[in-house]
Amino acid sequence: MFKRIMSVGLTVALLLTSMSSITVDALTEEPQSETKLLQEVTEEVTGDVNADGVFDVADVVLLQRWLLAVPNTELANWKAANFCQDDRLDVFDLCLMKRTLIYQWQHEEENNEPPIKAVNPTLPSIGTNRIPVIAVSFPDYAFTEENVSDLLQQNFFGSANPDDPQYPYESISAYYERASYEKMKLTGDVFTYTAEHPIDWYADDDARSLVTEITTALDEQIDYQVYDADKNKIIDAIVIVLPDETLEIDNDGDEKPDWWAFTTSVKNKQKYDELEIGDFCLVVYDKSDCTGFIGKVAHELGHAMGLPDYYKYTKDNSFENDGLSGPAGNELMDEGRGDLSACSKLLLGWLSEDEIQVYSGDSQSFKITSMQYSPTCILIPKNTDDGYLSEYFLIEYITEEANNASASGNGIRILHVQAEVTEGKYGMGFKYDNHSQYYDTSNQKQRVLRLVNHYGYFYPGTRGLQYTTLIDGSIEGFHWYDEEGYLTVDTGLKIEICGHQPGPDYDPSDFDPSSSSVDENDPAYIKGSTYEIIISQAD
Hints:
The chain is α+β, with helices and mostly antiparallel strands. The protein is built from 11 helices and 20 strands. It has 3 domains: 2-112, no CATH class; 116-306, Collagenase (Catalytic Domain), CATH 3.40.390; 332-537, no CATH class.
């Protein structure tokens, strides 16, 4: 569906071109209401005249050729194109077929917008994004690397390379291409700039004046239009990179760097090439920890796409500790390392509906592979009609592969999501994110994301393939939030994790029969392996 939506412009052009040889009054008549058109056609009128199971531009071209009597042109299912319902095919059917296909594409695009769009992010999470990256020196702090542009070009936009020593942080674009299953691709350009004032001059407004200064100074050099992927008249995101020596600045004496990675908006309406500035990300180039630097940038770009922090805040809004703890808690929007979770990927629109298996009641059996191998998860809704911006559980299988290559452990984790959105101080946002008035600084009540079982994976373990792990109301955190926001409401469900089956490349002959158990951590066993998950009503 994603590929079809992204090629609407091309396919519409093909549709119009395919009809250029036909001139009839029907093309200038007042078009029918598209809603009425779709309501009145019968189930037989699917548009799929070539009977390949898909209604697309190939069907329009085929009908066009048939109407022009092109030799050897046959319709496998002529009734599928009888849009006028008069038991004959003519140019009127062709016109209605074209309009119906375009209508469906337009509404597919509307209906398949990522849930994250509800919080109005400036950087799209779907498609190809191009961003400007600006390395900024100051009169008192400057980059000493002569090739800083080349270094940042590689850090940001280098090609994917699993053999790179920094993998999976060989580049930010490679990380996101893997995380999104190629649904989001990142490109861009690197510029250098020397600020007019010492760095402390820009501290009071969180560098907003610095961003305005830079974009104004580079206006003649940069065509900002290329950084508006969704054509909404907003520069999607700008990344400002500071010299690594700025990490030493601690003017307030709190033993923490004054310049730390963050993402925010400029808040002015000044325009550049007719575009306003969207979010900007500020990061410090840490040449001693390149993988950490790339992880921080990827985290901040996650904010630009609308994702909140998952780590816990204290009452003074400072960093305290992991929101998702333990070996099962790796998540880019928490610690700044590991892959994005099923929650993040679902909100960003990287999981299609057929990849989200939804529990609908009674007893159901599901099979899932690792999210690092292929996109799949299980959703348990609190209320079936609430959609993805609500409360639910997500079950995912994660492994030490791809973007989790530097993580620890393989297994099933259960995520508790509360993704309700509301109008807040800064516009639409997640009701329970760390900047919301509804955020509970004790961290006992609603959070956008938390782990069931706090630290742990769930998995059958080493007692053999038939061993089952049971999750029910006795497990910490496997409860819905009550009206006061506490985890007290029994789900009335039980989850059984069983049947861990090896991946397709595993050779059973490699198993040592003298061993007491199968080595379920063997990379060949893990890659593409599956778990069976059974969800049913509790006894």
